[in-house]
Amino acid sequence: MIVRDLGIIALSTILVHNFVLSQFLGICPFLGVSKKLDTALGMSGAVIFVMTVASAVTWLVNRYLLAPNSLAYMQTISFILVIAALVQFIEILMKKFMPPLYNALGIYLPLITTNCAVLGVALLNMRDYPDSLARATVHGLAGGLGFMLALVLFAGVRERLELCDVPECLEGLPITLISAGLVSLSFFGFQGLFA
Amino acid sequence: MNVFVPTLILSAMGILFGLALAFASKAFAVKADARAAEVREVLPGANCAACGYTGCDGYAAAVVSGEAAPNLCSVGGQATAEKIGAILGLSVGAVERRVARVKCAGTSAVCGTKYDYEGIADCAAARLVHDGPSACGYGCLGFGNCVKACAYGAIFVRDGVAEVVASRCTACGMCAAACPKKLIELLPVDANYTVRCANMDRGAVTRKNCAVGCIGCMRCVKVCSIGAISVKNNLASIDQDKCRRCGECVKVCPQKCINYYDCLLTREKVG
Q1: Which residue from A23, A112, B126, B176 puts its CA 20 to 30 A from B78's CA?
Q2: Do B13 and A77 touch (CB under 8 A)?
Q3: Domains contained in chain B, number
């Protein structure tokens, strides 16, 4: 039963409640690094990693530090602190022990310490899955995978967009935002998946 | 409401994380070679990747670790190589100056068209439609993606074919990467004899499409006494390491696609 439950959480986070395309979290990297497929993959790798670890750690912080002292109102500020320190720590460890992974993800890691998708997943976990570490972690992992799906799809769209004859007034960011809206709209087609 | 407990918990978390990070950065410090920063200083900073590494930082690290030779930066040339050598205490060999060369001479006067192209003026876009409007499926499309890629203003399009101004070219290779037909190669600056064609069609087909296309007739191969020329896939190519610049091949080439061209003497105006 728990496996089925986790599967549903994963699928609904990736497709129905996609962090970027349905919940509008993490838009900055979505627009910033989706120009090329390889940067999109590097960024997504870092986001998946950090979101998964951050989900688990913030859940533990909330459960054993904040909740017993009834400090739930401090979630936002303490999670920012936890996530920032955690990412820095992971970066140091990675540089030392996993240089290839560091070279692949290194420059993206500092960028996502303050990514609202990472903070968002931690806070949503507190709202939706306050009682289960496994569910919160899977939610974080799936959130990262959904981020990757959105980024990779959109990188493809933008590479095609490069070859299009765009009206002058829409060149650059305007046409990018319009196409992001269309991609987002297409994801709303998944809304009825778990009705 | 008690203010003391939340303040204490938050400050304790902050101090704890701060100490943990400080400890981690000491305990897991990676020794960075200070010379890498010095080498990075003397590199031009164009991040063109002509050396084969990811930008100037990557090349600096590779040089310091001994993985790369100090004379690979074609943009900085001899001067940069000597500075790197001075930092690392290495003797530096001569930097071979190279120049981008376009393997096509099919101007609109000698090479016909398949159809009238009215799409976006971009080589990559034009190539998607039946390999582009040029009658030759291998030749220069002349929309100038290489011109857009060149940071030094060293390449321009004349009569539908890209041409390089050797005096400005730094051999960074950006134009070669931008060309969807892969027509641009980096050759030694003294490569005076080159095959200015990339057509691999059979001779009869080539001759129908372009007046200066290589038809693979083998005459240059036969006349070359040192065997520097070979024909593969109906296309001649000259091994610039073997070539002694005797010029016999130019005399026999019926299509005039091998020709003499001294980049050092030719001064062209960007038009």
Answers
A1: B176
A2: no
A3: 2
Digit-coded pLDDT (tens) for A79-132: 999 889 888 888 888 788 777 777 766 667 777 777 888 899 999 998 888 888
Angle between helices B55-64 and B77-88 (to 10 degrees): 40
Residue B250: give the domain boundaries: 98-260
Residues of B in contact with A93 (CB under 8 A): 24, 28
Distance CA A15, CA A22 (A): 9
Query: Given A71, A88, A93, which is nearest B9 (Cβ)?
Result: A71
Q: Report yes or no: A141 and A55 within 8 Å, Cβ to Cβ.
A: yes
Give kind and range of the element (H or E) at residue B88: helix B77-88
Statement to judge: residues B82 and B125 lie in one domain: no
Residue type, B261: Y
Query: Can you give the pLDDT at residue B271?
Result: 37
A81 contacts in chain B (CB < 8 Å): 10, 13-14, 17
A54-78 tens-digit pLDDT = 999 999 999 988 888 888 888 889 8
CB atoms within 10 A of CB A15: 19
CB contact under 8 A, A85 and B17: yes
Q: In sequence order, which ranges of A14-169 are alpha helices (DSSP H)?
A: 27-32, 37-61, 75-97, 99-105, 116-128, 133-162
pTM: 0.61
Residue B269: pLDDT over 60: no
Distance, in Å, from the CA atom of A178 to the CA atom of B28, rounded to the nearest integer, reads 45
Q: Is the ipTM beyond the 0.85 threshold?
A: no
Among partner residues B24, B28, B122, which is closest to A163 by beta-carbon distance?
B122
Q: Residue B190: inside a domain, yes or no?
A: yes
Residue B62: CATH number of its domain: 1.10.15.40
Minimum mean pLDDT range among A8-22, A94-108, B150-164: A94-108
Read off the CATH number of the domain in which B122 is found: 3.30.70.20
